[in-house]
Amino acid sequence: MKKTILTICIAICTTFSAQAQDANGNMEKPTFQVDRHACIMANEETLKSIGLDAAQITEVKAIQEATKQGRIASKDLQEAMASLEVQEAAFKAVLTTEQQAKYTTWCQDQHGEKVQPNDGMKK
Fold first, then answer.
1. Is 100 exposed, middle or buried (0-12, 13-18, 19+ CB in 10 A)?
2. Which residue has the higher pLDDT, 80 or 53?
3. In the chain, where does DSSP find H-type helix?
4. How many Å apart are CA 119 and CA 86, to the nearest integer?
5. Smallest Cα–Cα separation from 65: which of 47, 87, 44?
6. Which of 27, 72, 89, 95 has a CA that sits 20 to 30 A from residue 12's CA?
7. What is the distance between the alpha carbons of residues 60 and 35, in angstroms, rounded to a whole number?
8. At what angle do helices 31-40 and 77-94 cross, to 10 degrees?
9. Residue 42: pLDDT band with limits 50, 70, 90
């Protein structure tokens, strides 16, 4: 009888432990972060369509590579969000005011209202 009770207790504890670990592993990144990342990673055709010249495209490609590396190196969500903010600011610094407006419009068209211009990372 004692063995049966002990076995049941161990089974219950193991089940709860497994569920707790699973819940943390299934956390999803916020949609707005994914969409902002997708906008920064626009292809060359899109960059040309919003009016970037060859020098700007070269700068943006370097920023995109840094964004990609930052995303790979990010160990947690906060670190990834901070990296994305820095890369987005660098990306927008390359653009003229007119290009920023076209970029924002393009990004909203691609991802709906999920991405707001200059929304920052509200905490």
1. middle
2. 53
3. 2-25, 31-40, 44-49, 54-73, 77-94, 97-111
4. 13
5. 87
6. 27
7. 17
8. 40
9. confident
